[in-house]
Write a structure and sequence with these properties.
heterodimer, A: alpha/beta, Rossmann fold, five-stranded parallel sheet, 3 helices, B: alpha/beta, 2 domains, four-stranded parallel sheet, Asp/Orn_carbamoylTrfase (chain B), EC 2.1.3.2 (chain B), aspartate carbamoyltransferase activity (chain B), pyrimidine biosynthesis (chain B), Aspartate carbamoyltransferase (chain B)
Chain lengths: 181, 306
Amino acid sequence: MLTRELLNESDIARMLSRMAHEIIERNEGCENVCIVGIHRAGVYIARRLSEKIRLIEGVTIAVASLDISFYRDDLNRRKNHPIVRKTEMPIDINDKKIILVDDVLYTGRTIRAAMDALNDFGRPAQIQLAVLIDRGHRELPIRALYVGKNIPTSRSENIKVLLKEDADHDMVLVIRDDHDV
Amino acid sequence: MDKDLLDIKSAATADIELILNTASSFKDVLSRDIKKVPTLRGKTAVNLFFEPSTRTKTSFELAEKRLSTDVINFVVPSSSVAKGETLYDTIKTIESYGIDFIIIRHQFSGVPHFISRISKASVINAGDGINEHPTQALLDAFTIKEQKGTIAGLKIAIVGDISHSRVAKSNIYCLKKLGADIRLIAPHTLIPTGIENDVTEIYHDIESGIADIDVIMTLRIQQERQSGGFFSSTDEYFKFWGLTLKRLGKARPDVIVMHPGPMNRGVEIASEVADSRHSVINTQVTNGLAVRMAVLYLLDSARPRK
């Protein structure tokens, strides 16, 4: 296995700052906006984006966390069902602009599941997608509005986002199987 | 996880903990406006009840529906079983519909184990004779954990007809695995032999048995199983063994009182206790739904894939 560090802590911080500015610009402030992170890394990124927006605009945006296990489309294919984590939706999402946040956008299936999950909580005015890494290979018609970095990959590669919340420090790794080298 | 949930006695502690943790996410689902998730869409469950049951059957049926599973209720008196069909053939017939879950209640101990051997479906024991009632023990453990934060180290009393109670047996195995101190409180005639190895203490006097207890589980006096003259009358039973407010005063101030239902007020439990702030009996019913959803969800992935 070959592992390469692609982005470090300051790269990630700069990407998140830019994304926070883009979110504010596109929504002309942050009125009626709330951020929903997908477990687990998406939740950490959602909290950081909310914090950056607070520093820029002086407004605190609510952050919710979403577990999408119950909405996955691959439950019949997986060997074990995913460990279910807590969904915390402290806000009424009806008519809100939702910024849905995940670490890596790949096939788009997680995002599809997350949108189904959100619909069970209400009818948001909009759902906008923010991801730290877009690695391509979409299998569904889904596109992110805010992207930290586009990293074209092959399907045999894997992107790993490590964040301080449960790793030593922030970094983005590309992992490649030996036989592909 | 195994594909079936047959008993708690042979269940791994890690699996019990996984079920309890998963149930808490399902409990959140039940508090939403839309209380249904698409998780088990396209799956089919058969509720096969050979013994009367209202709450367990209702709870399983609603749990299945909340997970988007299709449900068939196999009502025994009106079915071909009454026409002389063997259990084996009943199961094989049901299986031909393409069934994923069989929820079985039967008056004979071991029937779920038999079905699990002849069926590819996930088999869930909803009570077999005087053997076990695993989902009841899981929902009780979930309720205790929710109320008390933890189970390890708690002093838990089980009061009443231990001998005929599959609920008591499953609870004893479950709470022991989770590290509780278990006390049994019952007349000599209602304590099964051999159980002393699985519990901390046995009391034959309710007043001293309840002292310093964190959780009291009262059991229903199963009048349909009392032909052996284990006590003289239900009135006498209440006098000596009924859980009254006065007796409850000996327990810890934050004691919780549980009952698997259906309750016999004035037999094993006084009305004032059942309706007191200590009672979590209705919470148990809600939690039963969440725990059964978790069991269905987790067993679903344990079946071999086609």
